Amino acid sequence: xxxxxxxxxxxxxxxxxxxxxxxxxxxxxxxxxxxxxxxxxxxxxxxxxxxxxxxxxxxxxxxxxxxxxxxxxxxxxxxxxxxxxxxxxxxxxxxxxxxxxxxxxxxxxxxxxxxxxxxxxxxxxxxxxxxxxxxxxxxxxxxxxxxxxxxxxxxxxxxxxxxxxxxxxxxxxxxxxxxxxxxxxxxxxxxxxxxxxxxxxxx
Amino acid sequence: xxxxxxxxxxxxxxxxxxxxxxxxxxxxxxxxxxxxxxxxxxxxxxxxxxxxxxxxxxxxxxxxxxxxxxxxxxxxxxxxxxxxxxxxxxxxxxxxxxxxxxxxxxxxxxxxxxxxxxxxxxxxxxxxxxxxxxxxxxxxxxxxxxxxxxxxxxxxxxxxxxxxxxxxxxxxxxxxxxxxxxxxxxxxxxxxxxxxxxxxxxxxxxxxxxxxxxxxxxxxxxxxxxxxxxxxxxxxxxxxxxxxxxxxxxxxxxxxxxxxxxxxxxxxxxxxxxxxxxxxxxxxxxxxxxxxxxxxxxxxxxxxxxxxxxxxxxxxxxxxxxxxxxxxxxxxxxxxxxxxxxxxxxxxxxxxxxxxxxxxxxxxxxxxxxxxxxxxxxx
Amino acid sequence: xxxxxxxxxxxxxxxxxxxxxxxxxxxxxxxxxxxxxxxxxxxxxxxxxxxxxxxxxxxxxxxxxxxxxxxxxxxxxxxxxxxxxxxxxxxxxxxxxxxxxxxxxxxxxxxxxxxxxxxxxxxxxxxxxxxxxxxxxxxxxxxxxxxxxxxxxxxxxxxxxxxxxxxxxxxxxxxxxxxxxxxxxxxxxxxxxxxxxxxxxxxxxxxxxxxxxxxxxxxxxxxxxxxxxxxxxxxxxxxxxxxxxxxxxxxxxxxxxxxxxxxxxxxxxxxxxxxxxxxxxxxxxxxxxxxxxxxxxxxxxxxxxxxxxxxxxxxxxxxxxxxxxxxxxxxxxxxxxxxxxxxxxxxxxxxxxxxxxxxxxxxxxxxxxxxxxxxxxxxxxxxxxxxxxxxxxxxxxxxxxxxxxxxxxxxxxxxxxxxxxxxxxxxxxxxxxxxxxxxxxxxxxxxxxxxxxxxxxxxxxxxxxxxxxxxxxxxxxxxxxxxxxxxxxxxxxxxxxxxxxxxxxxxxxxxxxxxxxxxxxxxxxxxxxxxxxxxxxxxxxxxxxxxxxxxxxxxxxxxxxxxxxxxxxxxxxxxxxxxxxxxxxxxxxxxxxxxxxxxxxxxxxxxxxxxxxxxxxxxxxxxxxxxxxxxxxxxxxxxxxxxxxxx
Lengths: 203, 379, 647
Description:
By secondary structure, chain A is α/β, with parallel strands linked by helices. Chain A is 42% helix and 19% strand. Chain A is globular and about 50 Å long.
């Protein structure tokens, strides 16, 4: 089998807030990669403590074997964030000088920020951090794009579209179409494809 | 650095937890954090604001009494025993129909009726016993309603809360009937007008004070009534006839009597630390008359202390319009009043010193206060 | 067609729990029963989804003990069955399991335990492997997704061979992780249920199924364990990777195998460190262990929660000092690994680097410093109830009623999403003061209420969810009623087992497999107990607080308030707003109001946020679930709700 990956394994972290469709995004991405013959290991953190809390999926993509469902610290290759402070949270633990970051710019305030106990870094600050500490980064207003398409929950698919266009992984629109056809009802496929395409345009 | 305690926390530590709270409601209806239920002051959630109105208005937090007296009264009128004293009379309502439905002379109701009729106030805030849940006093706008709610009940009503609610809801001017602690709270609202952005306290146009020896804790008294199988909602008014050592309850099923000692066991803790029996911070103060004569004769009259010019004007007008009958009080009556007032002050100060553990620490009072020094001196 | 029924040899991505379900299908499982509990619930959900096609009986049982009993009945009748639970479920089932392992079983029966090291979605990190030792049953632990399937299938065969139940232990990082699995064959044979019971008492296969005579049955039970050990010696689920003469031997199992493997490769120690991965962890395959323990004197044991393997291996090593020599053990007992929390590749790599004296490659120093600075600006994302969650309203009401009551009353909490009210006291408005196992809140309340003779004078409330009610609360309620405990019990009825993903429970008219079933009504059960029962909508602040207040005041021994409101995430409610909620800019006084931001500082709904520029509250329409409750807490009535347009 010829070498299809930039390195092996490629470590991807998809992060967001409970309810943003984080798990679906990781399953769709993994499905596309498994269909291409890769070993994919996903480790997910969700459950009771995660309602409205941080949600994170670790994906390991390999041509050789299954890997640990937890990525070692400092070893993320790609971070896809559905919420900007969650991108920073993952960055601060799994970041390294080669990491690529794609982040939704739409903020979901943690409850501690709402109560006034903590501050929230402004968008410029977040962009600065990405520019300084990531090899590549994209900030995308995925939620607004998804709302234009009709449902804010599609922001996860907008981000997958952007990820595909960023050409960091061997995935494309055709693979997405096949995968989404397996997962969603026929009447929702159009919106998902529209979200994917809109995301791709942002990169 | 130690963090400054919030106003709410100060109230809890220094007033609620120490049982000094009078249940006046001054700290209530200003914000969603506090409420009155069954004459208890409730703190629903934690509030971290400092310098709040809740703390400033409370009659049991430290007060600048010098400034307060200066604001409300003329210096020449001040007495150490019963506060400002412009005039002292025995009075009663001229209207016999009114006298028939009220407790004593009907002076309070007569004055309020007049103030309403003359447009001096738009509404009168009087005690009422609606449901325990909304135990906030009643706003009345006319004579009929006023007469319906007349009657003394010796149970705490959060009149200051009633005023806060009224001012939030309406723009008109209010006359309030207040016990000494409530009158002090209302006076502190005037004193702290700088905290009152919308100057709502300017709607407070008249305070008629009531003499008060003590008030019953609603909770304890309810338990006593339950034991005696008396329905609280059936009580129309209460009285303590002189020399009989009983508390009379005028209920729909007739008059019931409770031994005074049993009733007094239900007195609110806070009353033991109160030095004011004549509502010193009101415009006029009214109480039951005590003079030589039969109990029934006494029952027909009130004592009236005029404290402010505004109070005096109202009384003069009432006499002029024939609403109020007035007679000079015997000198002995004033002497007795002062003596009784002094007695209460001394007892309360002793209780406060006992609570704080030091005669120098008078909790919400200041041992350096000029008027208090007068009292302490007489010991 | 469901992915779970993929044809043989197909490679699919399975979640650990899906792989377990597939393994059971490949073993020809007939009956599966469970009580929901993260991270175990997907096993039954998956089996339920193919129950019709595969002719299975699948149920969500009332609790774990009942689930074990339902599964055992199938085994007694010669069928293959499984019961599934999270770690603490084993405690509930253990009384039955003690007797089941003694009586023995017939058809293959597997007890699947999904544990939660680090308590990612639990209020404990209970360790259930000790139950395998204590109850004398074999224990298997899959180390990857393929094994999760294959070992499950083999567990049935083992059970049927030794005629006893077999425990299969997974962990969150296995159950809730996914990986490639190559499917095996699905059998076609359908078994018929036949329960034989007329043989002698001493014949466990033909006589009545019973744990007596104890001497006979206990001996038999131990012989079964010996047979299992013999099979374990040869099992391919135990394997060694590494050099012939390693400097250090890692013995590990479960997800820890993946961590250990990654740690060895991170440090480039493949030629110096060997890994013995055990799939069969109780009873330990002695001969196999003796063989590998002889390889080196440095033994590292990598496992999660308690040092179960470590203890057992040390006992084994102590039994054969002459054969295997003196060892140095690195594990939890000597502090090489933390005694609490879950492991990961980094923790293992760090420990390994220290012992092997190699450098653990980290990030460039300046970059790492920058990352630490980033960490400082990230606001922590604390737990809170979801937007539109009825529990927030319920605790708001409970707090109001307790404060009005004024006797410093408190709530005994229970297990469900509402447990968060005790884990993060601010979101329960500081009302909940105890939290233990399912149903314990009401048992504790019943006990507290009897302390009045010792001067205890606070009113006591307990809460529980609808699913928890059936699981374990009823005996406590009977106790409270019978012993005249003056408590107020609040049922937070949100119409489903919400926390674990809306599994049905006995209060609903639908079963795990979608059949219509009769609902068992909570209100009627409570009324039958002789309790005073009322129902309220937690979103109706005034009515609910009044009812609660009246209950607190009333001196009747058991008062029950059922607070009914469907979970905001339930399939029937999700995405459908009942109200459009807005903050009126004119009415909200913002920082100028005396409210000190009650709506945002205290109420803690993720959708109700503070606009720093306007210095006023604002509703985030993307996040708002449209419950409208917040409109009843604003003192200015500035939060305005309007009936949402039907989409």
